[in-house]
Amino acid sequence: MTYPFRFNQWVNLLYKGKDTETWGAFSGKWMVGMISLEYLQEEGRIHLFHIYVDKEYRRKGIGKKLILKAEEQGKKTNAKALTLNIISGNAEAVLLYEKIGFKLIELKNKKMKM
């Protein structure tokens, strides 16, 4: 799945895909961030296919915590890698992923695979 994608594609993958999970980050009862993972066991990796933090809650470490939690899950499941796709113009997200340790694998049609 590439980004941007249609919401119904995400819902179909989430509910029909038995190897997917979505986690939320909350402030009280309000969900302020989320991350969706797809376990690609044959490839030995976890793909992060949806990461979002509410604009009012960005730059507070929420995105980083969600990604680090996914990294912990990768270790528990013996995944060899975490991957994600991103639009190359999203400099703020690229900076976050690089700070965490993601490396650029491929640049294709203005999309980055990390």
From TrEMBL:
Keyword hit for Transmembrane: no
Record has Acyltransferase as a keyword: yes
Family annotation (InterPro entries): Acyl_CoA_acyltransferase (IPR016181), GNAT_dom (IPR000182), YpeA/RimI_acetyltransf (IPR050680)
Keywords: Acyltransferase, Transferase
Pfam families documented for this protein: Acetyltransf_1
MF annotations from Gene Ontology: acyltransferase activity, transferring groups other than amino-acyl groups
Residue intervals of the N-acetyltransferase domain: 1-114
Protein name: N-acetyltransferase domain-containing protein
Organism expressing this protein natively: marine metagenome
